[in-house]
Amino acid sequence: MNVVPPGIRRVGLGLAALGRPGYITIAHAHDLTRDYEPSAMERRTHAVLDAAYAAGVRYVDAARSYGRAEDFLASWLAARRITPGAVFVASKWGYTYTAGWRVDAERHEVKDHSAAALWRQLAETKSRLGSHLALYQIHSATFESGVLDDAAVIDGLARLKATGLRVGLTLSGASQAEVLRRALEITRDGVRVFDSVQATWNLLERSAGAALEDAHRAGMRVIVKEALANGRLAGPQTDPALAARLTALGAEAARLGATVDALAFAAALALPWADVVLSGAATPEQLRSNLRAVDVSWSAETDARLRSLTMEPEEYWRERGALPWN
């Protein structure tokens, strides 16, 4: 019987880069070989899911705005005869995909955190994923959208939670920590509404760490996304300024005999409060490289050597916002 290493059990697969032709991951077009025909992309998604499942990964994250990600996941679950509960399936609501299967679309997604959007998109997700759906999350909750102060939305999420469906929120932007602390306070009938939080943490952007640790201590499941900073921590860079910034990462990877992406991924896996760390791999080879993180010997010394990479949140999110869809 194959024994899955504990580290692998904490790895999840995010489908943001697999369900639609365009995404902001560096070299995304190269990863997809610019073959955007839906059936080809479905086969690619199935291949990555197969590689993940074979390695022991049992957490998959999708969203209504990830193009056809939910459809591709649903067809894989059916084709592989995966029973509900054998894979933990999470999805998200709050953005609508609007790119029309084009990489050069003017707008790729539109945000709508209204109660009407919640119920419409939940019905769409359930029609695809059915009883496989285990967690439904607000996609990129922010103060600006007002979603955490919308009583209709919060009451609706509380009702969903009462049916046994876990509810959570994902975060984005320089105010991740503050939004999370607000979410921790939200209750209905004395019960905290949110079961989980998904947030960005990586060697460039560590600002939400203390709040995520508090959430974990309070009993929320913590899911780390963008551990490789949308490809900026995944290997050779064409941007000279970014390459210079990441010199320390390359040097430490060489010292440890690890690949750059595995070392950066290992940093997230080393967080004691991170329950799941998502890989955003677009190919089986990328996934297998990410999974080598479980063999990296992360230490306080390595952490200290790489502290110089940390950016101010505002700078990080400004640069992320400028990444081109490709």
TrEMBL record:
CDD domains, A to Z: AKR_unchar
SUPFAM superfamilies: NAD(P)-linked oxidoreductase
Keywords attached to this entry: Plasmid
Domain annotation NADP-dependent oxidoreductase: ranges: 45-308
InterPro entries: AKR2_Oxidoreductase (IPR053135), NAD(P)_OxRdtase_dom_sf (IPR036812), NADP_OxRdtase_dom (IPR023210)
Keyword Iron-sulfur: no
Signal peptide (from-to): none
Protein name, UniProt field: NADP-dependent oxidoreductase domain protein
Taxonomic lineage of the native organism: Bacteria, Pseudomonadati, Gemmatimonadota, Gemmatimonadia, Gemmatimonadales
